[in-house]
Amino acid sequence: MNQTVCEPCLDSVTYSDAVSATEPCKPCKECVGLEGMLAPCVESDNTVCKCIYGYYRDERSDTCRKCRICEVGYGLVYPCGENQNTWCEKCPLGTYSDEANHVDPCFPCTVCEEDEITVKECTATSDARCRAINPRFTTAAPTPESNTTGATTAPQHDFPPGSPEGPFQVTDGPDTIDVSGSTVAGTATTVMGSSQPVVRSGTADNLIPVYCSILAAVVVGLVAYIAFKRWNSCKQNKQGANNRPVNQTPSPEGEKLHSDSGISVDSQSLHDQQPQTQTASMQGLKGDGNLYTNLPVNKREEVEKLLNGSTEETWRHLAGELGYKEDHIDSFTQEEYPVRALLSDWSSKDSATMDALYTALRKIQRGDIVESLYSESTASSPV
Fold first, then answer.
1. Cβ pair 135, 159 in contact under 8 A
2. Is 179 in contact with 189 (CB distance < 8 Å)?
3. Angle in degrees, 0-180, between the axes of helices 297-308 and 367-374, rounded to the nearest 10
4. Which segments carry the region annotation Disordered (predicted)?
5. What percentage of the chain's residues is helix, strand, coil (to nearest 5)?
6. pTM (2 decimals)?
7. H or E segment at 132?
8. What are phi and psi of 291, to 5 degrees?
9. 353 or 201: which leads in pLDDT
């Protein structure tokens, strides 16, 4: 009676997620159309696809559909997710939404200050508008004196709060003086030209020094924080250089490590190569200005594989974020492997750093590739 003969599934081509004596390897799923790759296909797991940004997966039809837009007067309650459409609600009293999108909730209405009046009430589709109240007219009241002609100077008046905004009259004996309340804010008016003008400033003017002080404190704190971080980083680098061991004593025994596939590995050579491999990998994955060319070969192949598993628009968007023009991007499509041609051309530039690549990937909603680069596991073929 013959025993079952097994063989490993091909990475990124076939997989097997069940223990069986009869079931063969299954073909990997391909992410097409409006789908992007969330996790690549490996020997034991199928490809995991997700809808691109702005789309969600409809469970009934298992297709990607465009996220609902919250119209004007409606705000976001729950955002559009992998398996959930946008949930909107009509803006309740005291809130408004004047823009149609699927990311903003209803905003609270503006409340006018005590020294302001409401020009336009807040509605579900527009915010309230406020205007400063015209300043009061305040003058001094000197003692009446007789001039050379025997005429008496008219007394000054201080109008109480709550006076009407429109023109009103001040009567003193036979003379009537018209005072208009439509003067420009921040100025004062005198009666009969016999007193100095009184200038009043609004509440906003008093708050300006406070805002400036807060802003200055934030800037100073930010500069101090950056200086401290740089100083601490330099200190740690110097300590790491001083504490680095000169040599390592090799293990006296060259033990053999046996894997399930039957291939033996010399533990002595594995021990010698492991620190160097880990150091190179960590240096390549740190985004502190390291060049893309310093990234390990297996990680570069993984980036290329993940981009190839997405739609053509994904790597074209990445090329745009990396600074390429449309005509240059079109030239890459003529190559046999467009993604490889793009990354190869970009890596020859001085600006081809890991920071720049991470930033571009996040802008095109491919943070999964960044997370894959930071993870220790790689989608490499088994030996």
1. no
2. yes
3. 160
4. 139-165, 236-289
5. 30, 15, 50
6. 0.31
7. strand 129-132
8. -75, 150
9. 353
Q: What is the pLDDT of residue 203?
A: 59
Q: What pLDDT is recorded for position 69?
A: 93
What's 294's DSSP letter?
G
Look-up: residue for tokens 């039957």?
262
Widest distance between CA atoms in the chain: 140
What number of other Cβ atoms are within 10 A of residue 318's Cβ?
Answer: 25
Task: Give ∠ CA 292-294-296 in degrees, rounded to 5.
Answer: 100
What does 80-98 look like in DSSP terms, one character per residue? --SS---EEEE--TTEE--
Confidence (pLDDT) at 383 = 36
- CB neighbours of residue 373 within 10 Å: 23
The DSSP string of 169-191 is EEEETTEEEEE-S-PPTT----S
SS3 256: strand
Please report, as a single letter, which amino acid is at residue 272.
D
3-state secondary structure of 216: helix
Q: Are 97 and 107 in contact (CB under 8 A)?
A: yes
- For residues 59 and 65, is the Cβ–Cβ distance under 8 A? no
Measured CA to CA, the distance from residue 57 to residue 82 in angstroms comes to 6
Segment 371-376 mean pLDDT: 74
Under 8 Å between Cβ of 378 and 302? yes
Asked whether residue 326 carries a pLDDT value surpassing 90, the answer given is no
How many other β-carbons are positioned within 10 Å of the β-carbon of residue 44? 10
Q: Among the listed ranges 78-87, 297-306, 371-380, which one has the minimum average pLDDT value?
A: 371-380
Tens digits of residue pLDDT in 17-54: 888 888 899 999 999 889 888 899 998 899 999 999 99
139 CB burial (10 A radius; 0-12, 13-18, 19+): buried
Predicted confidence at residue 111, as pLDDT, reads 94
Contacts of 251 (CB under 8 A, 6+ apart): 267, 268, 271
CB-count exposure of residue 150 (10 Å: 0-12, 13-18, 19+): exposed
Q: What is the pLDDT of residue 146?
A: 42
